[in-house]
Design goal:
With 179 residues, this protein is mainly α. It has one domain. 70% of the residues lie in helices and 0% in strands. The protein is globular, with a radius of gyration of 16 Å.
């Protein structure tokens, strides 16, 4: 979140690029892909904004409750969408992790100054385990299963969507580690 400047900027770039690609995926002809891409774009851009190094920009005190409200709304939407697809359960966990990180940042003056707390609460540990497992599973899914077929538009390429999910999972692990 607000650790050293160089890794923070790299995290901003990766998350913003992922969010931008997810916006492209929202133009897909597949309805389910469009729905998932919207939530993933929100996560990508939200993570990019939260990862800006504190040396470059310290958010005002109202920003953290605003993050919590936006991602709380995203969590409710993901919970509603989970009725149709279990993939939305991952979106729910991601949105709740963002709410949790925003709440921790709002409550911790040391974290806002760029120094994370010395202890790792149980929730942080559980989220780290979840996202580390998600990263390993997503990485394993990137292994090609067979020969490529016909040309597929950029918004519908499943391997790029998986790579974006993998990068966001890695970014979430990184953000949780610096919390």
């Amino acid at each position: 979140m607000h650790g050293p400047a160089s890794p923070g900027w790299l995290l901003v770039v990766v998350c913003a690029a992922t969010g931008a690609y997810c916006l492209l995926r929202m133009r897909s002809g597949v309805e389910e892909q469009r729905r998932a891409a919207g939530g993933e774009a929100l996560m990508g851009f939200g993570m990019a904004a939260m990862a800006v190094p504190a040396a470059a920009f310290t958010p005002p005190s109202w920003a953290w409750p605003a993050y919590a409200a936006v991602f709380g709304g995203a969590a409710v939407h993901s919970l509603w969408a989970a009725r149709a697809s279990t993939h939305h359960l991952h979106h729910l966990v991601g949105a709740l992790a963002m709410v949790y990180m925003a709440a921790v940042m709002a409550a911790s003056p040391a974290a806002q100054a760029g120094h994370g707390g010395a202890d790792a609460p149980l929730v942080t540990g559980a989220l780290l385990l979840y996202f580390a497992g998600y990263v390993l599973l997503s990485g394993a899914r990137l292994v090609p299963a067979g020969a490529a077929g016909a040309a597929v538009p950029w918004g519908d390429r499943p391997e790029l969507a998986r790579a974006c999910r993998l990068s966001m999972g890695i970014a979430m692990v990184t953000m949780l580690l610096t919390l």
